[in-house]
Design goal:
mainly alpha; Arc Repressor Mutant, subunit A
Length: 197
């Protein structure tokens, strides 16, 4: 009888180990799927703050590592908001290092060969559009950080006010106010710049 109990106990332990391994594999698969869905978004959030490709990539990797270790991702209700907040906080730690470097405009390349309606643009029109995008990027980069950051997240990254608020740790109304002020300031600077030409 003692041999049977020992064998049964060993069998149960083996089954528990198998189930736990299967659970871990399923959890890891879910995490990998989340990385596939959200890594580009998280990179854009980190880059919008750091404006340096290498620091943004490092921040994303560190954020995913923190999320995986804490297992908080298993309980999150708003995946995009939760991950934006996590990578934003990690990127803030990289900020002093990133500010010491100069911004490489080529990292922010937004050029496209198609127009808004999908039509082909001439080389001359591409050059004009690229020049306008470069000017706009410089104007955005020149904004004070408290205006630039929510503007980039809301307008360029197309995050909702709630997601931006969650990512930055500020009230949603403050996000809307800052985005509105940033747009007004951009318009003022653009008009002033055009007037100087």
């Amino acid at each position: 009888m003692g041999v049977r109990v020992a064998a049964l106990a060993a069998y149960v332990e083996d089954r528990i180990d198998e189930l736990q391994c299967g659970e871990v594999e399923r959890r890891d698969e879910r995490f990998e799927e989340m990385i596939g869905r959200q890594s580009r978004f998280m990179f854009r959030v980190a880059f919008s703050l750091l404006r340096n490709r290498h620091d943004a990539e490092d921040a994303v990797q560190e954020a995913f590592l923190k999320v995986y270790r804490s297992e908080a991702w298993l309980r999150m209700q708003n995946e995009k908001g939760f991950l934006a907040r996590t990578v934003w906080r990690v990127a803030l730690d990289y900020l002093p290092r990133a500010q010491e470097r100069t911004l490489d405009i080529s990292e922010m390349q937004l050029a496209t060969s198609d127009g808004p309606g999908g039509e082909w643009l001439s080389p001359e029109q591409n050059a004009v559009d690229e020049n306008e995008r470069t000017v706009l990027r410089r104007l955005i980069d020149a904004l004070p950080e408290d205006l630039r950051q929510p503007l980039v997240l809301a307008s360029i990254e197309e995050m909702t006010s709630r997601e931006v608020a969650e990512a930055m740790g500020i009230p949603e109304g403050t996000v809307r106010t800052r985005v509105m002020r940033a747009r007004a300031e951009l318009k003022r600077r653009f008009v002033a710049m055009k007037g100087q030409r």
